[in-house]
Amino acid sequence: MFAEGYQAKARLFAKGRMKAGTMNRTEKSYASFLEAEKHAGRIEAFWFEAIKLKIADGACFYTPDFLVLMPDGSLELHEVKGSPRIFTDDAKVKVKSCATQYPFPVKVVFPSTRRSGGGWDVQCF
Whole-model pTM above 0.70? Predict the structure, then answer.
């Protein structure tokens, strides 16, 4: 029973990690969405893996996928996941810790499954 659950969960994840600074398919899609938001004037700018935040003593850091500059000058951190099921407990702890320690709203975004036209579902922290 354990092996079946492990195999099912393993299918959710990519076959390895991307090299630092390289976007996966979902991140590329979200970058295209952010570019459209920029052209529409809803955001000013965005950067991929631009900052690394210390969230605990020792070697615990969090690197958000995107740093987003809003028109009012505020900054948001956006974390891109392929599915809510991929947003694991350890990732949730890092996101929640970051949201409480730093003055940035943290948004976790997933490709929408509710709309056939695409879009993104957002969880705010």
Answer: yes
Protein fold of 25-124 = Trna Endonuclease; Chain: A, domain 1 (3.40.1350)
Average pLDDT of adjacent 10-residue blocks, the chain of 125 residues? 57 63 96 98 98 92 97 98 94 95 97 81 96
Q: Where are the domains of the chain?
A: 25-124
DSSP code of 85? G
